[in-house]
Amino acid sequence: MIRPREEAPASRLDALIESGKPGITKMVTITAGVGFLLELLTRSGVSGVDTAHLVKTGVGAIVGTALASAGANALNMWYEADADAKMHRTRGRPIPSGRLTRHQTVKLGLWLSVVGVLLTMLLAGTAAALLCFVCVVSYVFLYTPMKTRSVLNTLLGTIPGALPPMIGAAAASPGFGYQRLFSPVGWSLAALMIIWQIPHFLAIAWLYRDDYARGGHRMLPVVDASGRVTSAVIVTTAVLLIPATCLPVYAGGGLLGLPTLVTAGVTGIVYLALCLRLALRRDDRTAKQVFIASIIHLPVLLMVMVADAAVRALL
Are 269 and 245 in contact (CB under 8 A)? Predict the structure, then answer.
């Protein structure tokens, strides 16, 4: 049984924050914000907007998603504590390192998840809250247990990763109830996120395949010793990513244009070239380059999208 070490209050707080996986939570929060902003600019522009309502729904969508994401991540750490203790990459996490107990972590995860979903419902509406709830449930009860059972876990894991921009878009959408679930902007961003996540996470799994094997996780690179199937999937999804990054242009009602298309095309082609090189070389160095390129590609594209939409809305 893992027993927590005696920690100073600041160290305990650090452990609680770490259990929410701040890096993942930050990315999830950003994509929820992008979905909110793009939907708002597409539907309403920047004039005639009720500022109080805008702030309320924005806080609900963005802060609620951040809290729910942190909660789901803490529940993931609670569930995977034994596997984490076996892996070099994760054995320093709060539970394996003894800085938090399982009870403390699951309690934190439940509270954050519930508060995040409720805050989203109260401030951003039931449609956004429903998506937030599905995001938590799919991550904790679908993706997490599937990691030790099937290589399809990566595909299933794209579901909670794709929902945050839909949460933001639903919060900013006009209409009532279920109608707010069908934002073209939200769906186009979700499609982009689904495809982007596959080569991104397969590159991580490639780099840490031995560690994942120690933890009992059935990642594709673990069972695909030659790397041929993994690299083929990476290249295929990198090809699909190029049209996927252009989808928001066609869903944005004319508010996204040439800057977004050019950025999507250039970054997509560069990324595809790196993925093709990985397929030819099948080595860790190139897999690391694909991973680094993926974490540059998405933020750059999202920033250009928001800037493109904002400039056009102001003109």
Answer: no
CA distance 115 to 170: 19
Q: Please tell me the distance from the alpha carbon of residue 98 to that of residue 155, in angstroms, as a whole number.
A: 32
CA distance 289 to 285: 6
CB 304 within 8 A of CB 256: no
Lowest mean pLDDT among 96-100, 174-178, 276-280: 174-178
DSSP per residue over 82-120, as a string? HHHHH-TTTTTSTTTTTSS-HHHHHHHHHHHHHHHHHHH
How long, in residues, is the chain? 315
The span from the CA of 165 to the CA of 65, in Å, is: 10
Mean pLDDT of 143-157: 96
Contact 263, 301 (CB under 8 A): yes
Residue 252 DSSP one-character state: T
Residue 4's pLDDT is: 41
Q: What is the mean pLDDT of residues 13-31?
A: 95
Structural domains present in the chain: 9-314 (1.10.600)
Q: Percent of the chain beyond pLDDT 90?
A: 84
Could you tell me which of 76, 89, 73, 79 has the C-alpha nearest to residue 214?
Answer: 89
Separation of alpha carbons 177 and 102, rounded Å: 37
Instruction: State yes or no: pLDDT of 25 exceeds 50.
Output: yes
Which residues lie below 8 Å from residue 32, measured CB to CB, with a gap of 6+?
Answer: 61, 62, 65, 66, 164, 165, 167, 168
